[in-house]
Amino acid sequence: MELFLHQVLAGLATGGIYACMALAIVMIYQAIHHLNLAQGEMAMFSTFIAWQLIEWGLPYWIAFFLTIAISFVAGIVIERTVFKPLHGAPVLAHIVIFIALFAILNSAAGFIWEFTIKTFPTPFGSRSLLGDGLISAHHAGMIGVTLVVLVLLFLFFRHTRIGLAMRAAAVNPESARLVGVRVGWMIALGWGMAAAIGAVAGMLIAPVVFLEPNMMLSILLYGFAGAVVGGLTSPGGAVVGGFTVGVIENLAGTFIPYVGQELKLTIALALIVVVLMFKPTGLFGTRLVTRV
Question: How many domains, in total, are found in the chain?
Answer without folding.
Answer: 1
